[in-house]
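Study this:
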Amino acid sequence: MNKTRLEAFSDGVLAIIITIMVLEFKVPKDTSFESVLPLFHKFLSYILSFIYVGIYWNNHHHMMHAVKTVNGKILWANLHLLFWLSLIPFTTAWIGEHHFAAFPMMLYGIILMMNGIAFNILQRVIIQHHGKDSFLSKAVGTDFKGKISVVLYLIAVVLTKYYTIASGIIYIIVAIMWLIPDNRIERLFEEEKNNN
């Protein structure tokens, strides 16, 4: 099957997720600087979640360039990822509304961890479909960054019970880790282009 509809649907869902997150902001009744201050925690949670959704969109986009065809398993694995991504606006609003309280932060971490696991599953299903010698398989390699991210999320989830700020710092570290461009797929495309 062609991958075009999968890409279009995924892009649409991710655009809606970002839109839902920004709709959580209510316009202050006043026009003063002080009237914006109560939105500070919501704004911080929005920034972090926007970055995460952007990271997933970027990595999904790159991964789909390595995909030639899709099958039913890939479609379901992609929907699985989109399901977990669609929960980000809920937890984003919750941690922003309650000033990064422990339980909302724990749930936020669980959702981030499940997104990481779902992305890894999608990646593995695509590799299984295209073969161990496929372009994506070569680009991903051992996927150390993907695996360490899930471990860090798990550590952060456990830490929320004892030290919520540490959890938040770990969530930020993982985001920064993924913001550094991962050019494995681009590099392989460039090498392939130069060899032809």
Summary: Residues 102-130 form the longest helix (29 residues).
